[in-house]
Amino acid sequence: MVLKTGGFETTTVYSGKAGVELARCREFEFLVAGAVMPHMNGIEAAIEIRAILPKCKVLLVSGDNEAGALLQEAGAQGHRFELLAMPVHPLELFQTLRSVGIA
User: Fold this and answer.
1) pLDDT-based confidence at residue 36 (cuts at 50, 70, 90)
2) Could you count the other beta carbons within 10 Å of the beta carbon of residue 42?
3) Which of 39, 42, 45, 96 is found 20 to 30 A from 56 (Cα to Cα)?
4) Is domain 2-98 given the CATH code 3.10.290.10 in the classification?
C-alpha cells in the first residue's frame, strides 16, 4: 500500500515460492521482501528470482535478528542484498529505494 501511494505499480504475493513463480511469468524491476519467512525465506527467494531476472534489484526488510545470519550466509555464497530494519517509516523506505537505484 505504501509503495502504491508513492506511485509504484505493485503486485503482492504472500510467500517466497509465490514470488519465484511470479518471476517465471512476469518481469519486474525490483523486489521488496521479508527476509525471514517460513518455508522459503526472502533471501532464498531473492536468489532464485535473480537467477530468473538478473537485473532485478532487491530490498529485504526484517524485524528479526535471524536476518543478519541469513544475510551473512548469502554473502558467503556471493549474494549481496540491502536490508532495512522494520518497523520502517515510509520516507525511510523511499530514501532506501533511491539509494539502491530503484526510485
Assistant:
1) confident
2) 27
3) 39
4) no
